[in-house]
């Protein structure tokens, strides 16, 4: 109880809650754009700290040299992964651009079939609207294509090229930060223990342990499930001779990992569209793929995930959306973790924003 008067106490708690929410929003909106290299350096440091500690204890190599070698190894692996990803995106984009004219013709034909089927269905259901023309999809497509801003695209490419020096500086900062966070880890912990109160330090240790057990294990489990779903759907799409089977399967697998959403969010409307445009066999196979993926995921998820993140699925989805709108990709990661951290600190009794039950 913040005040003897329960009404005043309620408004004080509401004020604290709104203040924390505002701070989270400001952090996601402005802090993450500045702090994500710092967080990335901390993540890389956490990855290499255990092997650096092991080698430093078992060999006479200085800790600074061991840290430098592992930092260079992380730099090499990251550069190789980025190179492979950029190459894959470049060659896939090139082939996709070559395929676009055929894809556009196919989409227009399917949309005309869909428009005809929809027109007939609506006129059957509502005979009084027989003489009322509906919106033409062809006109919508022509309007959309006419509004492409090529100058805006050129400006975007130019600004991206101009940001290369800043990107290089950020990369240097990340890996220098990785080195110092690892090589001087004990000095940093000693400094923080002298600056931060023991209760706050204890709260941070307990929160870090909780986040590792719940959030990071959950993320690891979801990545495994994404890979399994992606492999299933890639094989299925290849058997269906679907163009760009792997990128399409990867995108649907990521949608499947989001709370509330699933593969049905994509596959069911797609099968319905194929049904209306006359592709009955493909519609049937898409439903079969959906049922297969759903059964495999439901059978594997309890074994792989083990424990949930501890956040209501709707709250998780809302946090992801707010985080994305405020801070992009890093906001999607930060806001749900921040909300979960506040809930856990409330459970442990370090903060009290609402009465405990």
Tell me what the structure shows.
It is a single chain. With 357 residues, this protein is mainly alpha-helical. It has a domain of 160 residues. Helix content is 84%, strand content 0%. It has eleven helices and no strands. The protein is globular and about 75 Å long. About 2% of the residues have low confidence.
Q: How are the SSEs ordered, and which strands pair?
A:
Layout: H1 6-58, H2 63-125, H3 137-146, H4 150-162, H5 164-183, H6 185-195, H7 198-239, H8 245-257, H9 264-276, H10 280-305, H11 313-348
Helix pairs in contact: 1-2, 1-5, 1-11, 2-5, 7-8, 7-10, 7-11, 9-10
Task: Summarize, please.
The protein is mainly α and 357 residues long.
Pick out its properties.
single chain, 357 residues, mainly alpha, globular
Main beta sheet strand tally, sense and closure: none
Structural class designation: mainly alpha
Strand content: under 5%
Total helices: the number is: 11
Instruction: Please write the string of helix (H) and strand (E) elements.
Output: HHHHHHHHHHH
């Amino acid at each position: 109880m913040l005040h003897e008067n329960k009404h005043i106490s309620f408004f004080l708690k509401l004020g604290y809650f709104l203040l924390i929410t505002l701070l989270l929003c400001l952090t996601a909106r402005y802090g993450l754009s500045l702090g994500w290299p710092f967080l990335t350096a901390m993540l890389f440091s956490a990855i290499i700290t255990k092997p650096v500690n092991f080698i430093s204890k078992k060999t006479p190599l200085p800790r600074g040299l061991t840290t430098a070698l592992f930092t260079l190894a992380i730099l090499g692996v990251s550069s190789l992964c980025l190179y492979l990803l950029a190459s894959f995106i470049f060659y896939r984009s090139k082939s996709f651009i070559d395929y676009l004219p055929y894809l556009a013709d196919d989409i227009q034909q399917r949309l005309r079939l869909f428009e005809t089927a929809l027109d007939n269905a609506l006129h059957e259901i509502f005979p009084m609207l027989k003489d009322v023309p509906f919106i033409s999809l062809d006109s919508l497509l022509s309007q959309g294509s006419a509004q492409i801003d090529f100058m805006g695209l050129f400006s975007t490419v130019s600004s991206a090229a101009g940001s290369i020096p800043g990107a290089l500086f950020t990369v240097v900062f990340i890996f220098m930060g990785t080195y110092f966070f690892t090589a001087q880890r004990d000095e940093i912990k000693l400094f923080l223990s002298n600056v931060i109160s023991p209760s706050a330090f204890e709260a941070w240790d307990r929160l870090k342990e909780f986040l590792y057990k719940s959030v990071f294990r959950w993320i690891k489990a979801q990545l495994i499930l994404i890979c399994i779903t992606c492999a299933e759907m890639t094989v299925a799409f290849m058997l269906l001779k679907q163009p760009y089977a792997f990128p399409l399967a990867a995108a649907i697998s990521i949608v499947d990992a989001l709370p509330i959403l699933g593969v049905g969010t994509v596959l069911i409307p797609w099968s319905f569209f194929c049904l209306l445009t006359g592709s009955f066999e493909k519609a049937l196979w898409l439903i079969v793929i959906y049922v297969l993926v759903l059964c495999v995921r439901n059978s594997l998820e309890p074994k792989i995930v083990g424990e949930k993140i501890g956040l209501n699925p709707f709250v998780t989805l809302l946090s992801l959306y707010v985080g994305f709108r405020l801070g992009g990709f890093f906001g999607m990661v930060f806001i749900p973790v921040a909300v979960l951290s506040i809930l856990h600190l409330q459970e442990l009794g370090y903060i009290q924003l609402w009465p405990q039950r």
